[in-house]
Write a structure and sequence with these properties.
- By secondary structure, the protein is mainly beta.
- The chain has one domain: Porin (Beta Barrel).
- About 15% of the residues lie in helices and about 55% in strands.
- The chain contains 2 helices and 8 strands, in the order αβββββββαβ.
- A hairpin with a 4-residue loop joins β6 and β7.
């Protein structure tokens, strides 16, 4: 619990510093800060629960350095939810896995490059994520995290696009994929229902409001 409080305190401190930077309304204004939030839909390759069925959310702060009218680069501080979910129509007794759903809460810090022409933008980069907590629920409702241990560190590839309605308001769509698995390979070998080390994928649709 103390570790969780420390992480969120650090996140809030960084957010406050970023807002202060963005508020420096100099003639050239090299820094921009935005608040972002929206739903995510995710899946995990390797857990035998196929398809994007786990809904969650993502929110946080985005700070960019402005090179010119088209190019920006920056960092984000995000709280993100990942996981997977069995379909309601699946037969629990004949499934390939005993897992009902996986819920993962993560703090992420993406480093991104943005290109914008007119109202349309493109984004690419990578992210470091730290798993705060997670749960693996079996079909009988039991928690199975001891049978499916995860490490804390996750690195991701991020690609995306955006449409800017105004200079302050934009809609962003992001696709991301884990580059490493937090699932221990020894645990993979010990669980017959695990296909490969877990690799998460996510699609996020979110709004962005610039200060």
């Amino acid at each position: 619990m103390h570790k969780l409080i420390y992480r969120f305190s650090l996140l809030l401190l960084c957010a406050g510093m970023a807002v202060s930077l963005a508020a420096q309304n100099t003639p050239e204004r090299r820094f921009e800060a935005s608040v972002v939030a929206g739903p995510t839909i995710t899946q995990i390759d390797g857990d035998n629960l196929r398809g994007f069925r786990r809904w969650g959310g993502q929110g946080g702060l985005q700070v960019n350095y402005v090179f010119d009218d088209r190019w920006r680069a920056g960092i984000e501080l995000l709280f993100s939810q990942h996981g997977s979910q069995r379909r309601n129509i699946d037969d629990r007794n004949s499934a390939d896995t005993d897992i009902e759903k996986v819920n993962i809460n993560m703090v992420q810090a993406p480093l991104l490059v943005h290109f914008r022409d007119w109202k349309v933008g493109l984004t690419a980069g990578g992210s470091y994520g730290n798993i705060i907590n997670y749960e693996v629920i079996e079909v009988d409702g039991e928690d199975a995290i001891e049978a499916h241990p995860l490490s804390e560190d996750v690195f991701s590839l991020i690609l995306g696009g955006s449409f800017h309605f105004t200079e302050k308001l934009a809609l962003e769509i992001r696709w991301s994929r884990w580059l490493n698995s937090p699932y221990d390979e020894a645990a993979v070998d010990a669980n017959e229902a695990t296909l490969i080390p877990w690799i998460g994928r996510a699609v996020t649709v979110r709004g962005a409001y610039r200060f």
